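Quick board copy: two proteins, each given as sequence then tokens.
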Amino acid sequence: MNNNITLKDFIKQAASVIPSRRQTEWFDIEFYAFVHFSPNTYTDLEWGMGNEDPAIFNPTDLDCDSWVDAVKSAGMRGIIITAKHHDGFCLWQTETTMHSVKSSPWKNGRGDVVRELADACRRGGIKFGFYLSPWDRNSKLYGTAEYNDFYRAQLTELLTGYGDVFEVWFDGACGEGPNGRRQEYDFDSYIDLIRKYQPNACIFNDHGPDIRWCGNEGGHARHAEWSVVPRELCYRRTEAQTSAGPLKGDLSYLYNSLDEIGSLHTILYTEGLVFAGSEIDMSIRPGWFYHAAEEPHSLDRLFKTYITSVGGNANFLLNIPPMPNGLFDPRDISRLKELGDAIRESFGNPVTGSAKIEKAETPGSDTQCIYNINFNEPHDIRYVSLSEDITLGQRVSGFLIQRKNWDGWDTVYEGTTVGHKKICPVNLKAIRECRVYITSARDTVNLKHIELY
């Protein structure tokens, strides 16, 4: 037992864990694209071997402006490109290796996919980011201390040569190198470079520091998504904002795929809490790279994933793989437009302005409250969207949405966390009065928005 802090004081500390400015700005982006593009696009593989002939990479019709147009039609606000996947092939004019576009016939070896995309993103008014795989199946240095110098040189080129970067994405994939050894990645030095050259960029990694993986690649969200999580889960250069929990113990079992990583019964055992939002990633098709035989997922599946990710206190990263000619498949472009239309139709015209919303405290507790919502005339409500002011901390842990009936209140939705945004499908018909009842929170509730659609 940790006798230095009471349960009440620790919960209050947990309620005050806040995001950095870069994390707050990242949450506001909400929905953006991944683009997996490499020799795998031409070999029909998901993971390349690293021995592919650069001559196969030849996107003769590459048009990054069309990529930007397609993702914007879906309502996305950024693109992250696989500047280098595990096969080690670099999509930019790197000085570190010839296993790159420099050895490709595309534009006589003078092409630069990263440059063309970064410029197109700026023209289109959306964010630009990149993925740089630490695992490199081509480099002969992989598995040696010198490889970290090699990787840092590649990272520096991308951080300094392509303008503002909103997110740097690297996973922890670590396969065996050509010399039979595994690489010890110097993540601390990678993070230092990003902070030096792109201080506003958020860093995605399984273990932080800014953004963590949701734990699956199928777009599946948790029932309760906390951005405030134990440091044991997100320990990469992240300082705890609280003291240890009153039951400080063993959380070595924690991983992103578990469901209850931020719940009270877990965080009581932590060495300290940090803020690290969740990113939900999936591909528009079954594979991450382009395979002609695959079809895009249904509009229903993609829209539901949007609701449970952007509407579940997470950001949504949706992959769209280019075809070998460098263009998006027309089937994917059509599905993106359908998705954007569905999002705009559902959330483009809030009826909140027609409502009177008043907050009332409940007797006996300052961590419960009710937001009464009244209309002058009957309204149909399909969704209720809630947002906390996360700059003051994520606090709500339970809430109800209720409609008034002739003898009291009916519960139409029961939720747990809110955070940056919680979208609640309610499908209320001809209502004049409803309410949001915050049944539990870690401290005083600070809802920033209640939007009705």
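And the next:
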Amino acid sequence: MKHKSTLTVAFLLLLSLVLGACQPVQAPAGESGAAQAKLILATTTSTQDSGLLDVILPDFEQQANADVGVVAVGTGQALQLGTDCNADVVLVHARAREDKFMADGDGSRREDVMFNDFVLLGPPSDPAGIAGMTDAAAAMTLVADSQSPFISRGDDSGTHTKEKSVWAAAGIEPAGDWYVAAGQGMGAVLTMANEQQAYTLSDRATYLARTLEGTDLVIAVEGDAALFNPYGVIVVNPEKCTNVNADLANQFVDWMISVPTQEMIAAFGQDEFGQSLFTPDSQPWRNQ
């Protein structure tokens, strides 16, 4: 009798375990339980290093029940990821290259998002004597003439593209021990320039974000119209890349250019710096 009771208890225990395993798993509070969609965003190091994406992306992920995988590289690499069908959407800042991306059929939709500007940074000692200038090409000429250390992104990024255009405007092909092509993102280049007390070109947002961590570099040249820095968002063409999640990519673009998201962009940096790190510039924002 004792043996039979033991078997009964064991059977009931086993049955409870089996039934428990068959119960549906409850989604955590605040989640629908539906599988999250995946979106691959190829973007620039400036949107990542400035901290902008950390602030705004959670809103999209919640609204769309999506997981956004961010690949932060230079603009050239980001566009190449789109060309190679390895991204759903790109967010970059090199308008001529964006237009070519569209003309080549690699993108199906492009929208203006925001802008800021580039600034020429240097050490407080200012060996090239360019502090306070507003002509970027003239300032770069003095940097080259004095052979003051200059750290270039050298990575085919939007920043590197802009730097090359300023050198071209100055009629200079930079070369020599004073000119270092780092092949790195903006954050790494700012670290190198600070360590070597060198000049470099940076987007304003990443530089200001870096000041929170501490840097000796100061803005030497700003305000030149040639240093304007617009950003665009592009859906990778699903007719060319059949693996692209076009519906979610278009939803992302709609969200990115919407007034509520543009308001988040306008507010980004205000508390820390008393100014926006990016200026919203989408068509819906301009149409208000």
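Board note added afterward: Residues 1-32 have pLDDT under 50 and may be disordered.
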